[in-house]
Write a structure and sequence with these properties.
2 copies of one chain form a homodimer. Chain A is of the alpha/beta class. Helix content of chain A is 35%, strand content 24%. In chain A, the strands form 3 sheets. Chain A has an 8-stranded parallel β-sheet with strand order 9-8-7-10-12-16-14-15. A 7-stranded mixed β-sheet of chain A has the order 2-3-4-5-6-1-17. Chain A has a two-stranded parallel ribbon with strand order 11-13. In chain A, helix 3 packs across helix 5 and helix 3 packs across helix 11.
Chain lengths: 361, 361
């Protein structure tokens, strides 16, 4: 009775591997937080090196007064991936996350999903991995000290990625809310990083070769002003990613060599919103591929105007898909209808009732 | 020890109601297939009547030689919804579905998903509900006989929706594969519909007031030619929805009054691909709202050039969301990270390790 057994128990085709929040944490712990981010960075670099094989488009937003929901699809011609992500700065007031997300990876030849996963934690990991990857090409050689301005949910991940991938040893932390800095210092207590809590942004920047800004105000802000920024540093501007939201004074941009992920996206959302559309900026994939220069002198201010791009999520999804067989930390989700006869969808519904797997009516 | 208990057991904010394929079948059975489709049709009509409040865009496709994956987002300013759907005509060769899908409904004010559901079965139900809704406005009054050309996965749902919502009693079925018609007749055996299996499309159309075409070839085909179509009928053209795929001869289109869901989408994918962009067509919402005429005479040929539109999925998702509290047929999915302190995502990951909910290494 093949029909009955299949109706009672969907075949393998019906199941999609699902990584819950709990399983994502298990995957992170079993692989290690730092190796996990280094691994994602390797996948991102690999994908950026085949930049031209990707279908690229700016994310698709749905705006509300409180925030935005975005779909970020991309494809390399074989695999399709997308992330759903929201950004709602006031969410924390009622205990919700500012940014949450989930994502899917699919086989383009069949259209069938091969991975469905939480992406709140995964986005935090990939964002930090992506920042550190860019800094490997742009930051002064031998950087040891990083200022981190904005000590919210993304800041811990940034510090650890820069420790792991660049050898940063000292963190100088500033937040308008001192409790946020205390929280950050506590979480980094046993990681080998020295954390100094600073009273002003100026204080935080003192002696830093790398300045990471990761604040979340939904408006034009100037976290850094021009006179604060000395020559030779690398600025990793992670906050932002909304039209109308920036962190840096325009004069800093004019003194910097600016690097972006995807020009078309960054001019909508990044710090470069403040500049003319024809202002020279370099896409990072060109630097990774040796087609454009990264850092060329000790005096140069380099700026990574990070807004996040679909290919980075695609890389993170690929990394997780490849990791799951090793860790086993996933569930199987009954997401896809799988009738015996693919043309007999209604028959499957009908038989599920008769077999009692459907409700008794 | 709030921290520990929350780390061990995510709060309600972390969970998203999930309707698996099995639970979708349970929901369908407990509510009844026909009432389920009638219910969706009511929600679609309600949403089409507030057409102007929706954010409308053509779906976002990723093409492969074998088929297409599409994201279909929309929003009414309060709620955001999207469907992931694929179309791969050759999938049935290795036991997969031609069309599968899943969808999400979210609160736009927080960005948090409120429903995640399979949409392979739900799409079949909403497509049939949508066809019958259009036919209520366009088909000849008192229609009793429907020809159905193409007897695949969607055909059963179409027949039942037309029985339930229009009072169709007789089905004349034709498929190039006679086994498909036998399958359809078997599934409809105890539904109160009389099914006649026909040897040719001409035979099937004989005496029918409504002709439904629902074939799946990915090319320009002419399932119906001009001389087959008499005056006064309603054509429900469901197949298609690919650029380069049509079912009807152009001359039929020229003799018909054509109704579409969303002009911009239908000219990309529908039968009207064969016509000039300025050929007069009517959007259905205008008919439902009394702003445009539907059927105006007994001789008129009306044609619904159906391609499927995001708002119909939005309506179907709303219907399921409202149904779930009554049936209880859903699971809770641990999809959203929910730290005690929303700014302390890393702390949640850290504590999950210490608490042993994360893996031991």
């Amino acid at each position: 009775m093949t029909t009955k057994s299949k109706a009672l128990e969907p075949s393998e085709l019906a199941y999609v591997p699902f990584v819950s929040v709990d399983n994502m944490m298990k995957n992170v712990h079993s692989y290690g937080v730092e190796p996990f981010m280094t691994g994602i960075a390797e996948y991102i670099e690999e994908d950026f090196l085949r930049w031209e094989s990707f279908d690229k488009k700016p994310r698709i937003p749905a705006h509300a007064p409180q925030g935005v929901i975005e779909l970020m699809p991309t494809s390399d011609g074989e695999t399709f991936g997308f992330k759903y992500v929201n950004g709602h700065p006031d969410n924390t007031k009622d205990g919700r996350q500012t940014v949450t997300g989930f994502g899917v990876l699919s086989e383009l030849s069949t259209g069938y999903p091969v991975l469905f996963t939480e992406m709140t934690i995964l986005t935090a990991l990939r964002t930090a991995a992506n920042s550190a990857l860019a800094a490997k090409y742009l930051a002064p050689k031998g950087s040891k000290t990083m200022a981190i301005i904005g000590n919210g949910a993304q800041s811990d991940f940034q510090c650890l990625a820069f420790k792991s991938m660049l050898g940063i040893t000292d963190i100088r932390a500033y937040d308008i809310d001192p409790d946020a800095s205390v929280r950050l210092a506590r979480n980094l207590a046993n990681t080998g990083l020295d954390v100094t809590i600073c009273k002003t942004p100026e204080d935080a920047i003192e002696g830093a070769q790398i300045v990471t800004t990761v604040t979340a105000d939904k408006k034009y802000a100037t976290i850094l002003t021009d006179n604060m920024v000395g020559s030779g540093i690398h600025i990793n501007a992670v906050g932002g990613d909304c039209p109308g939201k920036t962190e840096l004074h325009k004069d800093i941009l004019l003194r910097s060599d600016i690097f972006v992920e995807f020009l078309e996206q960054t001019f909508i959302e990044g710090e470069v919103q403040q500049l003319d559309r024809d202002h020279p900026v370099t896409e990072l994939w060109e630097v990774y591929a040796g087609k454009a220069a990264g850092r060329t002198s000790d005096d140069q201010i380099t700026l990574f105007d990070s807004v996040g791009f679909a290919i980075e999520d695609f890389s993170a999804l690929r990394f997780v898909r490849d990791l799951l067989p090793k860790t086993g930390h996933f569930e199987k989700l009954d997401m896809l209808a799988d009738p015996d006869d693919p043309r007999d969808l209604f028959g499957m519904v009908l038989r599920s009732k008769n077999d009692g797997t459907g409700a008794a009516a």
